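User: My instructor asked us to take a sequence, write out its structure as tokens, and then describe one feature of it. I'm not sure where to start. Here is the sequence I was given:
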Amino acid sequence: MGFKCAIVGLPNVGKSTLFNALTQTASAAAENYPFCTIEPNVGEVPVPEDRLPIIAAIGESKEQIPARMNFVDIAGLVRGASKGEGLGNQFLSNIRETDAIAYVLRCFDDDDVTHVEGKIDPLADLDVVQTELMLADMESLEKRAPALQKKAKNGDKEAILTLKMIDLAMAELNEGRPARCAEIDKDDRQAWRMMQLLTSKPVLYVANVDEDSAATGNDYSATVFAHAEAEGAQAVVISAQIESEIALLDDEERVDYLEALDLKEPGLNRLIQTGYKLLGLETYFTVGPKEARAWTFHEGWSAPRCAGVIHTDFERGFIRAETTAYEDFVEHGGEQGAKEAGKTRQEGKTYIVQDGDIMHFKFNV
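Assistant: Let's start with the prediction itself. The structure tokens for your sequence are:
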């Protein structure tokens, strides 16, 4: 499942440095000038999962395969991007194809790294970028409306529903708020998603701090967290420079380096995990002698739909799911022990899979 999170921000805030660390490559240029990233870079990264090695050890699995998600490094946006300034139009379309947005905000002072706005103010930076996305959404909706209005006059139900969504979005945008602030009825959420609005996507704020502030944050990052809390969003503190250095170390060196910086884990782990949760994603597992594997699904999915993550035939021919909760699997020493303790259940088509479930699907095609 190709879940994508866009890394968005002004030029020179650390987006490409962060992306390089995420993918542990130098595939994205990280230079001190705007528009150094000419094509959007996509990196597939493993989702940190403490439960997977435990399951693998109990199941004596030869291989561990984590869940994965994609990050897309979008070139720096500037004022006027919605009107094509810089490389605006191209990259706005790249953002539209993603599922969520991580706003990287510069929270460090460095005279050697130019700031395109001439001052360090993470919330002002956010306002610039978000305003461009809002303007792009407004332009897109204004272009769509006339054709839909003609169809709606002829009773086209889909056009009528889409116009309703446009009205809800424009009501927020005209008040200077992103479209995600609109209250959408449960029955209309699919139609809302089909609009593909830039500002309707869930967001995560990444406060990119200096090395000395990596563990505790600083005054700049505090303003970012206060803003996130006020709107019910998520925020993480990361030093992209530190993360890029950590990414090049082996496991033992990484542990020593983190300890020296008073960090419990790489900031990237928090970023990936927060992005994963932001998208409403959860994990179930399969385990056997060959491999223990983490599979991604959306919260609230049924057993057949989760089976389809492995293969469409599993969903089409679903019979039942042999299910063990992670805690029971560990407590009773694996599949056989859980069965003997009566902790393995036979679940049918209506079962809603829970995060951490260990599954074995029965199907017939």
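For the description part of your assignment, you could build on this observation: Residues 25-38 have pLDDT under 50 and may be disordered. Try explaining in your own words what that tells you about the chain.
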